[in-house]
Amino acid sequence: CGLIVFQSGFAGIFDVVVSKNQRRRGFGKELMLGLLLEAQKEKAHTAYLQVVKNNTIARSLYHDLGFVDEYKYWYRIKNGN
Q1: pTM here?
Q2: What whole-number distance in Å separates Cα of residue 43 and Cα of residue 49?
Q3: d(CA 81, CA 22)
């Protein structure tokens, strides 16, 4: 499954997930191509997404689809009381 949100010419792609037992069969690529087709239909000029740095399989897929790293996002956790 996946979610796409449109705003002012941008297409935000979120929550792209393929069931563990269905991975490595091309479903993620087909899903992404479908979402990007919807972005094109809506005349979005830019698509964006976030992916965890160590998710090498997803990062490879996104790279193959033309996505590039724009910046790094750091999660911060507060420990303590």
Answers
A1: 0.85
A2: 17
A3: 42
